[in-house]
Design brief:
226 residues; alpha/beta; Rossmann fold; 8-stranded mixed sheet; two-stranded antiparallel ribbon; 10 strands; globular; binds S-adenosylmethionine
Length: 226
């Protein structure tokens, strides 16, 4: 990863006309592998300046040769840049790609045993005032992502819907709405499936399908996608 001061070069190199190499809309592999495919598929210029705005320990970039500036609010993650993605200490129009994987589901089912608190930022809380969801954090982030991206730059967001307190939380719809209002064009959606759904023996009666997928959403800072 790199320091904030090295990410301001102007990048104008256009990619050569690409051969058609289809990207599947359903993915059951690793995020890191999919992300590399997305980085080869969507940007119009070879992406040099990449910001991961919720980097955690950098799992997305394991085995990647990409230089990525990783930001996180949690000092335990030892990010390149410590801070909030809702107020980025970065120059406007300076990134080709922003990646965002916000905090999501409260620990549920067997996953309660896992270290999700540290891995996924679940220390974050949402109260009844914010409807037990993290959607209120999306508008300030997308506004900042839009500012730091160059024209035609892309935003990749991994996002999960979930059921909380017997209510379906439509996180991906809230995110699309916030990003569109910030000026992004919503361009694509890839469904990522997990090995199995989250099950908890406390849930005696199911009223919702058990979530076994999340989304990778693709946005462009442009009035059109292509
Ligand atoms: C779902 S995890 C990201 C996991 C990461 N993509 C990975 O694969 O390792 C969410 C991360 O967002 C961070 N986070 C939560 N609120 C934040 C904020 N306001 N600004 C920046 N990072 C934040 C958490 O500390 C956590 O590391």
């Amino acid at each position: 990863m790199r320091s904030a001061s090295t990410v301001v070069k102007v990048q104008t190199e256009l990619l050569p006309p690409r051969q058609y190499d289809p990207l599947p809309s359903i993915w059951d592999g690793e995020d890191s592998e999919l992300l590399e495919k997305m980085l080869q598929f969507y940007p119009k210029v070879e992406p040099r300046n990449i910001l991961d705005a919720t980097v955690n320990s950098g799992r997305f970039w394991r085995n990647s040769s990409r230089e990525v500036l990783g930001l996180d609010i949690n000092p335990q993650c030892r990010p390149d840049l410590l801070g909030t993605s809702q107020s980025l200490p970065l120059k406007s129009n300076s990134f080709d790609v922003v990646v965002y994987d916000p905090p999501h589901v409260p620990n549920q089912g067997k996953d309660r045993q896992k270290d999700f608190g540290i891995r996924f930022g679940l220390g974050a809380k949402s109260s009844i005032e914010t409807n037990y969801s993290f959607s209120y954090t999306y508008p300030p982030f997308v506004s900042e992502a839009h500012r730091v991206l160059r024209h035609d730059g892309v935003l990749f967001c991994k996002i999960t819907d979930y059921v909380h307190n017997h209510k379906f939380q439509w996180a991906h719809i809230d995110f699309i709405q916030a990003a569109t209002e910030a000026g992004f064009h919503a361009c694509d959606c890839i469904i990522k499936i997990r090995k199995g759904p989250i099950i908890d023996t406390r849930w005696k009666v199911a009223h919702h399908a058990r979530k076994q997928h999340c989304y990778w959403l693709v946005f462009r800072k442009s009035h059109r996608c292509e």
